Amino acid sequence: MIEIAPAITKPDFTCVEELANTIWRKHYIPIVGESQVSYMLDKFQSADAIEGQVNAGYEYFLLNYNQKAAGYISIKREENALFLSKLYVLSSYRGKKIGKKGMQFIEEKAKRYGLKCIRLTVNIHNTNSIKAYEKLGFVNSGPTVADIGNGYIMDDYLMVKTL
Predict the structure, then answer these.
(1) Are the beta carbons of 56 and 4 closer than 8 angstroms?
(2) Which pTM value belongs to this model?
(3) How far apart (Å, rounded) are the C-alpha atoms in residues 101 and 154?
(4) Rounded-to-integer distance, Cα 66 and Cα 63, Å
(5) What is the predicted pLDDT for the residue at 122?
(6) What is the chain written as a DSSP string?
(7) Which residues of 101-111 are buried (b: 16+ CB within 10 A; e: fewer)?
(8) Cα separation of 144 and 7, whole Å?
(9) Which of 36, 72, 75, 133 is the 20 to 30 Å CA partner of 103?
(10) Burial class (CB in 10 A: 0-12, 13-18, 19+), 20
């Protein structure tokens, strides 16, 4: 059974940090390298960083499968769109419709907020994720580059899904 639970406590943030460490290292090291992944995990996905993001308006949710943490979501309500910051599932739990349930949850949140679209960014070399988002109705709106500090950039595509 899939359950989506708000991540609002320090132990929740620590759980997300542990999930991110496992998922990101496996998925992103081949794309951007170990040093950038380590930097990004520390800067964006440590328990303290997550707590700061929550205080700044981001919402985090744990994706649980049979009462075990299998992934997580991060979203932020913006003026005209819901920003999907993160949707990750452990590779050992893929194929169990957890990501699909997460995306349905995200779409429902956007509609409840009265928003007409969901936007996200995805690394330009993350071809499998790009294809998956396109299958879910997202349209590639072009490249976007962000300096994240320490000499690293995020070289992404902006993708948008109209609801």
Answers:
(1) no
(2) 0.95
(3) 27
(4) 10
(5) 97
(6) -EEEEE--SHHHHHHHHHHHHHHHHHHHHHHH-HHHHHHHHHHHSSHHHHHHHHHTTEEEEEEEETTEEEEEEEEEE-SSSEEEEEEEE-GGGTTSSHHHHHHHHHHHHHHHTT-SEEEEEEETT-HHHHHHHHHTT-EEEEEEEEEEETTEEEEEEEEEEE-
(7) bbbebbbebbe
(8) 29
(9) 36
(10) buried
Would you state the structure tokens that stand for residue 138, as one six-digit string? Answer: 């997202």
**Locus of tokens 């993708």:** 159
Q: What is the pLDDT along the chain (163 residues), one digit of tens a residue?
A: 999 999 999 999 999 999 999 999 999 999 999 999 999 999 999 999 999 999 999 999 999 999 999 999 999 999 999 999 999 999 999 999 999 999 999 999 999 999 999 999 999 999 999 999 999 999 999 999 999 999 999 999 999 999 9
Closest CA to 16 of 66, 67, 74, 58: 74
Whole-Å CA distances, 130 to 68, 103, 151: 27, 14, 25
